Amino acid sequence: MAREHRKLTISRRDALILGGVAVAASGCQTVGRFIAGESAVVASNLNHDPKARLLHRMGYGPRPGDLEDLGANGLDDWFDAQLKPGDDPLELRMAVSAMPINQLQTWDLRDWPTTRVVKELQTSAVLQAVVSPWTVRERAVQFWTDHLNVYSGKGMSAHRLPNYVNNVIRKHAMGKFSDLIKASAKATAMLLYLDQQNSTPRQPNENYGRELLELHTLGVEAGYSQKDVREVARCFTGWTEERRFWTQQLGNEDGVRAKGSFRFDPALHDNGEKFVLGEKIPAGGGIEDGERVLEIVTKHPATARYIGEKLAIFYAGEESKSLAAKVENTFNATEGDIPAMLNTIYESGEWRDGPPIVKRPFDFVVSAMRALGATGVGNGPVVDTLESMGHGPYSWPMPDGFPPEPDAWTGSMLGRWNFATDLANGIPGVGTSAKSQLDRWKGENAAENAVRSVFHQTSSALEAGRLLAQIQNPDLTDAQRVALALSSPEFQWR
Q1: What CA–CA distance (Å, rounded) separates 424 from 432?
Q2: Which domain holds residue 402?
Q3: What is the value of pTM for the model shown?
Q4: Collapsed DSSP state (helix, strand, coil) of residue 337
């Protein structure tokens, strides 16, 4: 069924032309194999230019002019600067800060429809990933958003998510791992998502304690027991949300506490003695019990190993024991400094030589918009596309975050094709189209122009002769050639 925002009408003849070219370009593969099967052979040679590979692996791919700038300034200097991100452009900061979700306090959002809150959250996530020059930070934000996933559809979690995204994920994505975990532990979005507000001394809720150990820090293979999970749950009893009447006027040791913010309630805390991972936590500790648990788990050797492995796979595309060990060592040496771990991955060079990584729908949409120089997101079409492909930000219900495996995303090819067609013809509010980028490459033939406008490289440099041959079809328009380049196997990998 056609989406309302699309103004382009594709005739039956156009559909046959495009369909025939797409099938030919994919080697007569099924839609799933087009992304995850034999097309990997094509992708194995992609982005062998280290500048392009770096931008795709550590960020979301190049915007117009990025490859030229990277060539002029050098990879090392560019990456060093990316590890110390500055302010985003004024226009981007103004657009994000003007969103009502970033203007209102957590409690003030409670009467808003969940769908509106989520739509603005998703729009903000896409906009910053597309427009920000600090693409390494934006890639890290994606990683930690999945690592510390909060599902917007659980209860009132969505109304707490703007504060969580801004003051936990984005604030600490390029900081210290321990600060990130401690901030997430006191984020009401996380606490409500994992039912921490229902935890009492008589019935400690184990949801948060289990995910803290299994997903956030130690990893499932760290050897902790069910008794450890229960003891951790006891330590976090009393960690809840401030909801008392007239709270805004109540003073405490931290000053005035806003409704919807974190609160420790001594009346709900289990004051007994606990043992966590072999360490004794004395009775009567109060809020310090939970804080001590956070110290234990963020400094545990299993955490450094687990985070090292996960980062290595995310950026290098394979389970590299040598790279995982290097990142683990950096974690231990720097007390979990995230930029230092990213720098270890960069200096290893394994991002350059690792196997191709399939672009999940969010990666595909963002990299396509960056490739064509988008300056906006529009009023709904982009996030609607991500939702239709199953990758709308903050919409994964399980605490483990969106799956990284290619097999999870092989059903999204039709959605990618439709989005590529829309983007090439111009989506209102996005600020780009095929024509705006093709104008940069005047003088080349139409098919070569299309390849360059998408990949910012020549077809010969990409070794994309098959793609070039397919989009030479004289029946294709310029926009159709660009759409097919965006939909090609070559563009589905990073």
Answers
A1: 8
A2: 12-70+358-491
A3: 0.91
A4: strand
